[in-house]
Amino acid sequence: MTDDTLAIPQSGTVGESAYQKIRSDIVFGRLAPGKKLKLERLKADYGASVSTLREILNRLQSERLVVAEGQKGFEVAPVSIANLREIAALRQLLECRALEQSFRAGDMEWEGRVVAAHHRLARMEERMAQGDRSHTEEWKRYDWQFHQALISACGSAMLIDNHAAVFDKYLRYQMIALSYRGDIAASEHAELLECALARDAARACEVLRRHVAGGVEHALATGTIS
What we know:
The chain contains nine helices and three strands. By secondary structure, it is mainly alpha-helical. It has two domains: about 15-75, Orthogonal Bundle (Arc Repressor Mutant, subunit A), CATH 1.10.10.10; about 80-220, GntR ligand-binding domain-like (Four Helix Bundle (Hemerythrin (Met), subunit A)), CATH 1.20.120.
């Protein structure tokens, strides 16, 4: 993973680079829900041709991050409470399945990845708890990395990819709501680490369900999602 995207690996082409940047800007809320995506403006901002941008927007439409307005062009996909709940439920389903498989297959190298990812996340959560909101995107990247590390030994590239795509949609809602639950979320991450090292998948899924449900309710409590 790089600083410009979460789920999509880097590529050297201009089109792929523009795709990654636009996608990242949508996920991190820099392109707000409902924003009109004018091709000429995108061309100036992302350095890609109009034809390439059309391909990119169609690709993002297939990921449900962009919607087409008939003959009017494209806009960033809207958000809704129902959609957030649907995404959260799908994330729980995929992640619990992946956790079970990963906990069974994980070796010491996997444990090392999980411990290292949690360490980075925990340090960033300490800064967030102290009121430092200057690294919000970095905090969410570390969050993404920790959850991906937990499932990284599941043995299914398809499961990992699908989870990453759903996690990004869930993350978009968190960024829109600027949702940070403080010590509660940090303690749940610590519990997940304990479960991983103990190979306790049943408890991990219970913690995960509480973790995701709490994130949803906290995001909705901000009143920024209607």
